Amino acid sequence: MSLPDEKLKKLILKAGIISKIDLPKISRYAKRENLTLEEAIIKKELITDSDLGVLIASNLKIPFVDLSKIELNNELLSIIPERIAHTRKIIVFGRDDKTVKVALSDPENIELLKMIAHKTGLEVSVYYATNKDLEKSFIHYKTDYQQLFEKLLKEDRAQIITTVAYDPPVRKMVDLLVATAYRENASDIHIEPKKNNFLIRFRIDGILRDMATLPKEIHERVVTRIKVMSRLRIDEHFSSQDGKISTQVDNENLDLRISILPIADGEKIVIRLLASKSNFFSLSELGMNESDLMKVTKAFQSSFGMIICTGPTGSGKTTTIYTVIKNINTRDVNITSIEDPIEYRIQGANQVQVNEKTNLTFANGLRSILRQDPDKIFVGEIRDSETANIAVNAALTGHLVLSTLHTNNAATALPRLFDMDVEPFLVVSTVNLIIAQRLVRKICQHCKISKKTPMAEFSKFFSKEIINKYFKSNGKTNEIETFMGKGCRFCHDSGYSGRIGIYEILEVNDKNKDLIASKASAEDIENQAIKDGMTTMIDDGVQKIKDGMTTMEEVFRVTSVAK
Q1: CATH code, 283-441+499-536
Q2: Per-residue b/e over 245-264, b at no fewer than 16 CB within 10 Å?
Q3: Domain 142-275 has CATH 3.30.450.90
Q4: pLDDT tens-digit profile of 188-209?
Q5: Which residue ranges of the chain lie beneath pLDDT 50?
Q6: Which helix (H) or strand (E) holds 265?
Q7: Exposure of 498 by Cβ count < 10 A (0-12 exposed, 13-18 middle, 19+ buried)?
């Protein structure tokens, strides 16, 4: 950290960023959210990251640098190895005949600066950069992972092939695999055996990407190493196994969920990466517009009722629910959850893991939770009638219940509850809000360009009503201005980097209660909600196309099944 909290408090008080009255609130917020004071101030939007950087740099009496405005190259980056750059938060961004320019968030790291001076034979010129800016700059360390793994194999090929999973080369390979996946913001690692080799793929922004193809002869060693780390049976090759690993990458605690499945050419492994800070979002950062934010805030401020989040697997439902929980997580309430699995640990919440072997199901766990004097309850997923009815009754008796369902859109969640034998009058009395969502890939900011899209092309994806509502075409050329990523090394030539949510939020109100109570169709309920001002997922997606956040192909890809 650039400044100790006490020094930072004095600095922001002196600068008038925050008052003495509000400072304890920010400190409590930072502690509750497991954030540094610096992160908390930025998260609360009291000051921008760069403005705070200028303030801290001035206090430290060193120049400030905004790395996002500087073009970095491989020659400069190679002065400091990637692993050290990540862990020590430092990067080389310039040099001349006499000096080498270094940006870091901890200028008192004298030993590291001496090492750089010794390595380059130049005087080190120190600049301050914020942690956030440094993290974004590490993307410039993009590597050809095929070459990286082949180099590792070449270093000691004989040792890898002839020794067991405990040997340093195999251990180094698995550690490198996890570290590179984490740095690429991958959610999953796929290790897939083929007839003559095995393939490593990362799921990045919801899409699988090939990263490397390696010799079949070391596949078994890699599998054994992962089994040893996750304490699974190394002599079992013909049945599925599940395990987990806790590790650390770049000073970040990382939970790995391991799934091993025997397929035709060997054992396939899928590793899910769960980082402790992956869920540090605000609702606006998730992509909700102002109107939807107000609806969600109103719902979670209620002391009872249900908030249901719907969408297919991988649509970000759990992240949205966790973000809501973080907003209601205060010391004066008892928050208890039943989950399968527990994806992220929430400080202050009591989280229960489903365990079918001990008959700790969602339904049985929820019954036990109700005897634990809860205020707010999170049910990971409503899968059956028993769980649905217990959850509804919990909401009816003075608890705020949050849960998820697998439905295509917001309105179809209601008939789904009816199918689970929940009486319509109970649904009307308990359900406050239904959030339906998808995740779309964001256009890469490094290669984003504007383009003219013919109206006819846009019409392939969306109705004329939608197009006329959000776009004004050029009368002469009949074109619409949109944006795209042309592809670069930072986005693996995909044109996309990162994801954002598109939402539709259905409030249960006086205008649609009669429809719900009479078991009206999902279409009728949706039409009434749209009349009441509900923004559909397609509307929200097209607005994000117009704002240059994503593309029409992405919105169509994730909403085509939601129509």
Answers
A1: 3.40.50.300
A2: bebebbeeebbbbbebeeee
A3: yes
A4: 999 999 999 999 999 999 899 9
A5: 160-165, 278, 563
A6: none
A7: middle
